[in-house]
From TrEMBL:
It comes from the Eukaryota. Residues 29-41 have a biased composition (Low complexity). GO terms for biological process: poly(A)+ mRNA export from nucleus; protein transport. Its main location: cytoplasm. Residues 331-343 have a biased composition (Polar residues). One of its GO terms (molecular function) is inositol hexakisphosphate binding. Keywords: Coiled coil, Cytoplasm, mRNA transport, Nuclear pore complex, Nucleus, Protein transport, Translocation, Transport. PANTHER family: GLE-1-RELATED (PTHR12960), MRNA EXPORT FACTOR GLE1 (PTHR12960:SF0). Belongs to the GLE1 family. This is mRNA export factor GLE1. It is found in: Cytoplasm; Nucleus, Nuclear pore complex.
Amino acid sequence: DILEGCMSPLVLSPYSGWVLDRVIERSAPETSPSRSSASRESSPHAKQSSPPEKMPSASHRDPSPLSSAEPSEPKGNDDLNLPAMDEEVFPAVLPSKITEVEGCIWMYEEMHRLKGKEELRQRQEQQEQMVRAVYDLASEQLKRFDELKELKQHQEFRDLQEVMEKSSKESQGQQEKLKEEHRHRAKVLNLRLREAEQQRQRQEELERSRKEEGQERLHRLYSIQEEVLQLNKQIDPNYRQKDLPKIDLSTYSNRGNQICGLLSGLIRTTSERGFPTQADVGSAERALQEMRGLISSMQQEIATAVEEKRKNEEEERQKQKELLEKEESKAQTPAPAQQSGGKQQKEGPSLGLKADKNTMEWYQKLQDAVEQCIASFSELSNCKGNKEVKMIKTDLHKAATIPVNQISRVSGSRLRDVFDRLNNLLSGKSVQSGGRSVCVTQHPQGLDFVCYKLTEKLVGQAEEEVSSHRDAAFPIAVVVSGIWELHPQVGDLFLAQLHKKCPYSVPFYPALKEGTSMEEYQKILGYRFIDSKMENQDRFLKRMSGMIRVYAAIIQLRWPFGNKQGAHPHGLEHGWRWLSQMLNMEPLVDLTATLLFDFLEVCGNALMKQYQVQFWKMMLLIREDFVPRIEAITESREKGSLSRFKEFLETCLKEKEIPLPKGILQPSFWSS
C-alpha cells in the first residue's frame, strides 16, 4: 500500500481545505488593515472575495475529488490561474498565500513523502527484521530439526546399540546355556562311551573266552577225529589169516567208516556254525568211545578166535593120534577152515574207501604227468628278471584264459569261434590277444605252459561257473571234448587237475596220513579255507557238483565239427566205471547222494541208451542196497540231498525212462 501511494499521481488529501483554513486564519491579522482599506474603497471587491473563503468550508464539507482537485490547480497552473485572479483585490496577499499554501502543500507532500519514506524504511526494516527473524527462526528451526534429527539418530543408534547389546547378551547367555548343555551332553556321552567301552571290553573278553573255549573244543574234536581215524586204520576190512579163517572184520570196518563219516559231518556242521558246543564234543567223545569199544570187541573176537584155533589144533592133534593108532590115513574129514572159507565167499566183499588198483595207478600216472608239465615250464614261470620273457608269458596266459571266459550258451557261432582260437593257439598258429599277435612257438616252453593254464582255467570254470549256472556245464564240456580229441595232452592235464580239486571224480576218498594237519587234510578232501576258516558245506557241495556235472557231460558229448569216425577220447565206458566204483565204496554224508544225483541227471540218459538192461539193474541196486547205506549214516537234518536223489530214482524207475538233461545243446544251437 505504501509503495502504491508513492507511485500514484499526487492529489490533495481531503484535509487540505482544513489546512488552508488554518493557514488563512493565521495570516488574517497581518492583512486586516490593508483589507479594511480596500473594503472601504471598493465594497464590490469584498463581495467577490467571499467565494475563496467559502472554498475551505465547501472543501471541508464535501471532500470530493473535485474539491480536492481545485487546490492542485495553483500548483500545476500557477501562471494560468494568477491572471484570472483579481490583481487589483489581491495585489500583495494572494501570491504569498499561494506560496504559503504551495509551501504547506510542498511541506505536506515532503512530510508525507518523508513520512512515507520513513514508513517505507521502517516497513523495510520491519520486513528485513521480519525476514531476518524468519530466517533466524528458520535457521533455528533447521538447527532444532538437525539437532532433533541428530538426537533421533543418536537415540536410534543408542536403541540399536542397546538391542545389539541385548541380543549379544542373549546370544552370550544362549551360548553359555548351549555350552552348559554341551558339557552336560559331553559328560553323558562320555559316560555312555565309557559304559559302551566297558561293555565292548566285556563282550570282547567273553568273545575271546568263547573263542578260546571254542578253539579248545575244536582242537579236541580234531584230536578225537585223528584218534578215530588212527583207530580205524587198525581195522583192515580185507583182514584174513590162514590160521583164523573165521575172522571177518568187514562189520567192524563198515561201522568204523560210519563213525568216521558221522564225525566228519559233525565237524563240518560245527565249522559252519563257527565253533563246536560242548554237546558236539560230547557226541565226538561218545563216537571215540564207541570206536574204542569197537577195537576192543575186534581184539576180543580175534583173541577168541585164536583160543578157538588153539583148541581146534589140540582136537586135531588128538584126532590125528587116534587116526594114526587106527591106521586110517586115507580117511580125513574136511577142515573147518575150508568150510568157513566157503561161507565167507558167499557173503561177498565189503565196501572200501577208494577205487580199484588199476584206477588208482591211472590216477597217480595223471598226477605225475601234471608234475612233469609244471617242471617243464619252470624257466618260463620264473622269469622275473627278463622283461621280454615276462611279456611272452603274460601274452600266452591271456591267450589261453580269456577265450575260456567267453564260453557260453549265447550262440553256436560264438562258441565255435572260441574253439577255433584255442585250437589254433595249441596248434602253433598265431592268434590275436589284446591287440597283439601271440604264438606258443615264441618260447620253447610255451606249449606246456599254455596247456597247463588252459586246463587250470577250464577246471576253474567248471568249479565256479557251473556251481552257479548248471546249464553252463554243456558248452564247457563240448569245448573240452573237442580240444581233448585234437590235443590228448590237454585231456590228461584236465583230468589230473579235476582229480586234484575233486578227488571224488576218480572216485577216491583220500586217507589221513601221519604228520598231516587237519586243515591240510580238509584241503586234500576238496575244502577251501578263507582266512583259516573252512567254507560251509553248501558251498563245498556246489563246487563238487559243478565239476562232476562237467565230467558227466564230457563223457557223452563230442565236438560236432570234428572227426566222428574215431572213438571218444573219454567216453561212456569211463562213466560206467565211475558209477560202479562209487557203488563199491562206503557212502559219505550228503556228498555221495549229491554227486550220484548230479551224475545221473546229466549222463543218465546216455548210459541208459548205451547199457540198457544192465543200467536198470544198477539203478535197482542203488535203490535197494546203496540208498539204505546212505540213510544209515545220514541224520534227519542232513537228508535234503538224499531226499532229492531218492525222488529222482523213484521217478526214473517208475517211468522206466531218464529224461534228457536240462540245458543240453540241441542241433539247432549250432546254427545260431
